[in-house]
Write a structure and sequence with these properties.
- It contains 4 helices and no strands.
- By secondary structure, the protein is mainly α.
- Helix 1 packs antiparallel against helix 2, helix 1 (3-31) runs parallel beside helix 4 and helix 2 (34-64) runs antiparallel to helix 4 (82-97).
- The longest helix has 31 residues, at 34-64.
- The protein is elongated.
Length: 98
């Protein structure tokens, strides 16, 4: 896999998870419907293992192909940007319920 393909895959996963989380958060804030909150927490429960699985895959790929290790670490860093955003969205969503 080329360096750019690795980074593009990581960016795609990041943007899909980020976009879906933002849609659920804004939907919950604007409509005050519990369905958006439930969907957001379901996304959190499903996206965290998905991101972790891809991060682990990038790490293993980087270890096996030493020349791609730095690129794989950058891809993992891109995926890790979602962690503080997810924490912030969780706090906001939790305050939405209570």
């Amino acid at each position: 896999m080329e360096d750019q393909n690795i980074l593009n895959l990581s960016r795609s996963i990041f943007w899909v998870c980020f976009s879906m989380g933002t849609i659920f958060l804004l939907g919950g804030l604007m409509t005050r419907q519990d369905d958006f909150v439930v969907g957001g927490y379901l996304l959190l429960v499903l996206a965290a293992p998905l991101n972790l699985l891809f991060a682990l895959g990038f790490l293993v790929y980087g270890i096996i192909h030493r020349s791609k290790f730095i690129v794989c670490l950058k891809a993992i860093g891109i995926l890790c940007i979602n962690i503080p955003i997810a924490i912030l969205y969780t706090i906001i969503g939790y305050n939405l319920i209570f």
